[in-house]
Specification:
The protein is α+β, with helices and mostly antiparallel strands and 211 residues long. It contains six helices and twelve strands. 29% of the residues lie in helices and 23% in strands. Strand 1 and strand 2 form a beta hairpin.
């Protein structure tokens, strides 16, 4: 039977470490580490633990969203008997979307929280940001502004291309809303730079237009 590579499968290059895909950037096919199926399982529990329900898993999270990586690993090892600490390490090191941040023995999700945390990121200092949405929602947003839905913050993209990618998850006909971030900040609206995305409590309609 043909041995086909699983989507999301994690491998390890002896020179460059963990990677996802057919081969490392150096061309090395790598050593198998984790199947795509198991990587998806770990991804879901990591996301839940760091964004939505740390207390349910017995994790202590500080006000800025940090938890102990050691404690998180123990939770995962208890839930999945096949999971090992190097699997968790591989998950974080192969995350190409910048969803997570590590600092020593601490780890946190950069964005996507349904929890009420206090991000301590620097303020975004650019002029424009973007929000991708559907045709149906665009008119409503332009009328009432951008407000969080199922998350504690509004997530804004730094480029039109990224906004399109986000919108295409939900719709085949994305509409891109341009945010005048500079003018919004001048009125006292806080916009935080979380790396891949920017976070804010809300953006009033007066600072929005179709991009």
């Amino acid at each position: 039977m043909e041995n086909r590579e699983q989507p999301g499968e994690i491998k390890q290059c002896p020179v460059h470490g963990y990677f996802r895909g057919r081969e490392c950037t150096c061309g090395n096919p790598g050593r198998f580490v984790l199947s795509g199926y198991k990587a998806e399982k770990l991804g879901k529990i990591i996301s839940g633990a760091l964004r939505h329900f740390p207390a349910d898993l017995g994790l202590d999270m500080d006000e800025h969203g940090w938890v102990s990586l050691r404690d998180l690993t123990r939770v995962i090892e208890r839930k999945y008997e096949w999971a090992r600490s190097y699997h968790v390490d591989a998950m974080f090191k192969t995350d190409d979307k910048g969803r997570y941040e590590r600092k020593g023995d601490k780890v946190r999700a950069r964005y996507g929280h349904s929890l009420n945390i206090k991000p301590d990121y620097p303020e975004f200092d650019g002029d424009k940001l973007y929000y991708g949405t559907s045709e149906e929602e665009a008119d409503r947003i332009l009328e009432i502004g951008l407000k969080p839905v199922n998350q504690h913050f509004v997530h804004l993209s730094k480029s039109i291309e990224e906004a399109v990618k986000v919108a295409c998850i939900r719709t085949e006909h994305p509409v891109i809303i341009e945010v005048d971030a500079k003018k919004a900040r001048e009125t006292g609206i806080e916009i935080l730079d979380a790396g891949p995305v920017c976070l804010t409590a809300q953006i009033p309609a007066e600072f929005l237009q179709i991009g």
